[in-house]
Amino acid sequence: MSFIIKNAKYVYTVNGEDSILEGANIVVRDGVIESINPDTLPQDIHDIYDGKDRLIMPGLINTHSHLAMTLLRGWAESVNLDGFLELVWAAEGAIMDKPTAALGTELGAAEALKGGTTTVLDMYLNPDATHAAAVKVGLRHVAGPIFFDFPGLDGLQWEERMEFGRKWPAILKEIGGPEIPTYFMPHSTYTDSPEHLREVADLAAELGARIHLHVSETLNENNMVAERYKKSPTEVCRDTGILDVPTVFGHGVHLSESDVAIAQSHKTAVAHCPSSNLKLGSGVADYLNYCERGLTVGLGTDGCSSSNDLDMWIVMRVAAHMISLKHSPADVRPSQIVRAATIDGAKAIGIDHLVGSLEVGKRADIIAIDLTALHLTPIHNVAALLVFAAGRSDVSDVWVDGNRVVDFRKPVQIDEQDLRKRVAERVKVLEELKVQPNAI
Mean pLDDT across the chain, nearest whole number? Predict the structure, then answer.
């Protein structure tokens, strides 16, 4: 957990000034960034990483995903969210027991890390199993108990969900791994009643936990909730106490001006998932407006069964293009998009004191970008290069909490070939469920 990155071509710190250093050195000791560009390098650290032809930056932070759904990549194509849920929930019912959820999360965690994503806010069933799987691969994995009014695939009754939530901090401590906050994850205001949301909010306040849930992903959701409660999903969250604890809205595509004001007044963050929202035809969140109104906005991929990948580089690019479309190209600032994928994501989740930028005293969640590719040549604007030209195949090395978890494009803590074999064997059960032709 102690190493030196020496003579990096660029170090993109994403600090308060968005400083980009050239020919810089970084010293990491016991998983913590000890110094950046010191006058002399310590002689007692012998693990030296050659930063020649590398851009060094903070690991990317995915603020909304469902990692286990890597197993359903390409399962529900050419459908909107309602059609997607119908197909996916049937497949999940056939396959997603606890060991399978862990397997899918292991696959998702490895995919994320290889692509330079070091932290994921992950919402899925059986979080004890999924969290252990992600930690095994080396990801900073932010998980939490899921709450539905109904039993769901895990078969838990409401009282059992609440009991599991109370035990969650102890379970996190037992599993270990990189430091994360405690999260509770009610699915949404249309699958959790106001009474149950109040219970989750009260428990979160009691235990010092944070909350993550889907909010205003589609107009249909907004209409459904309005018909039931005469309120928007944001207003339901406010009136049930959800927003009295730190909360991240998943998607937040269709927030009204009133909703945005409510979220801002409660310091609620938004996980913007432009690729998934476009693919499902859900709409385009007004990222720029949210930021200008004072919301913290991170970026997310959503799950692989809707977005088909965990590629945060594509998400950055699409987020930028959506600003051009909704506003104008003059409103796109590449550095702002980089911040959304790093420090703003960390702030949304509540870990910006730990990660999200390269600064002395922070944990060493670091990625290295190989700049030797032709598509990264020449370099006129580093931030624009990252947003509009770089991709996950350009990530060569990854450290999480100071541990090198990807070594020149190879995961260190798992056997890729064995993982692929286990996944291929497990998904065979889905063959008999295929009822739709593959979209061409």
Answer: 95
